[in-house]
DNA sequence: ATTACTAAGATTCGAGTAC
DNA sequence: TGTACTCGAATCTTAGTAA
């Protein structure tokens, strides 16, 4: 997709005019100001964008075009229910820290209806299911926003409702921290580590 | 997004190898066979695609790249019900002026079933919800067209039905005037400023 | 500060064609 | 049938600069 259009949509230029200079757009898209200017003129000619003074917006036509592409992508990514198998491993303890923070506890409760047990269960996914882990990210999700204290900031949490050995749970992907590609972090109401043993089956709709 | 990659994903080349010729790809993408061939070689070099004999698939890297773009688009198109927290601040008085104009009063009533109190409530959104403010703009909305007198013209109003501390209200985004990025303007039947105190919770579906 | 023109350089493309 | 090379043309991008 056109990178300028994409950048403008991220800024919310599909609903109202936003004020942004060609240099700023160039910066975001990693191109020269001159090129950004030229391409915006092109997009304007094609009625993808509209400018009024220093303000710019994406037209309905432009929005519709991106939406079409989005719907195609959605078809590709919205795969049906899946199962991942694996086993419990020891975590680094960072999940426990996160789940002890009031912000995350509160938001998990608000969105999923339970106060999370202060700890996360780390499940190492078997080799053949590693690809599926990536695809979880394309499912319906709830994003818990990050927050900041004066000392540090905490990132977004991507949350996916799921079941682990038939128990309702939430798969959490902390956005900032980098995880092993074969490990999934689970949050639930109860202490899963005590309750679960041996083979683990995670189901995502 | 790369159109060849897109075409291959549509064919399911992320699930397993598919058999497709460069001419077929060229046909789908509206380009020459030679160009399709060259670009596939490039994608292969970048480990976006992998070929074995006449079969081709999209690698995890390639799939991941598209997935990232998809997730960005998903944020733009499909953010569900949300809550924004903040507190009441003093407005510039311009909202009051707008809401005293017959045109806007009439159209608010027509679309939302109440005559607005002649004034708007300005809510300063807490830091971590500022991103959500942008995303309100992607929700279903009613646009009240602008109008002009011989002296001046009045811009469009983007209106989003919402609730403020459980009271039905309308979030209004005046298009022309530029607002602080952390302030939301609210219109309701009653004088909200008198009724509400302390912490404010705005809900948008 | 901006935006956007021109000219030149860089990249991408399609036609012809070999294998 | 296929794929993929060369090469000239078309397109896109950047630098310099005017307004």
Concise synopsis of the structure shown:
With 205 residues, chain A is α+β, with helices and mostly antiparallel strands. Chain A is 37% helix and 28% strand. Chain A has 2 domains: 3-76, Winged helix-like DNA-binding domain superfamily/Winged helix DNA-binding domain (Arc Repressor Mutant, subunit A), CATH 1.10.10.10; 82-204, Riboflavin kinase-like (Elongation Factor Tu (Ef-tu), domain 3).
Mean pLDDT of chain A: 86
Output the CATH class name of the largest domain in chain A: Mainly Beta
Residues in helix, % of chain A: 25-40%
Q: Please provide the count of β strands of chain A.
A: 12
Question: Biggest sheet of chain A: strands side by side, in what order?
Answer: 4-5-11-10-9-12
């Amino acid at each position: 997709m056109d990178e300028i259009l994409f950048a403008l949509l991220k800024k919310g230029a599909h609903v109202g005019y936003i004020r942004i200079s060609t240099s700023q757009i160039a910066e975001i898209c990693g191109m020269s100001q001159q090129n950004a200017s030229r391409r915006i003129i092109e997009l304007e000619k094609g009625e993808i964008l509209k400018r009024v003074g220093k303000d710019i917006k994406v037209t309905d036509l432009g929005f519709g075009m991106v939406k079409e592409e989005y719907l195609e992508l959605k078809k590709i990514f919205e795969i049906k229910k899946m199962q991942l198998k694996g086993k419990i491993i020891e975590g680094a303890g960072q999940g426990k820290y996160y789940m002890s923070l009031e912000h995350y506890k509160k938001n998990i409760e608000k969105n999923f209806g339970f106060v999370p047990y202060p700890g996360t269960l780390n499940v190492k996914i078997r080799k053949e299911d590693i690809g599926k882990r990536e695809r979880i990210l394309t499912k319906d999700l709830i994003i818990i926003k990050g927050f900041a204290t004066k000392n540090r900031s905490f990132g977004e949490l991507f949350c996916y409702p799921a079941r682990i050995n038939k128990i309702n749970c939430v798969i959490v992907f902390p956005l900032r921290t980098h995880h092993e590609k074969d490990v999934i972090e689970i949050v639930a109401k109860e202490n899963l580590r005590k309750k679960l043993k041996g083979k683990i089956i995670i189901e995502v709709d």
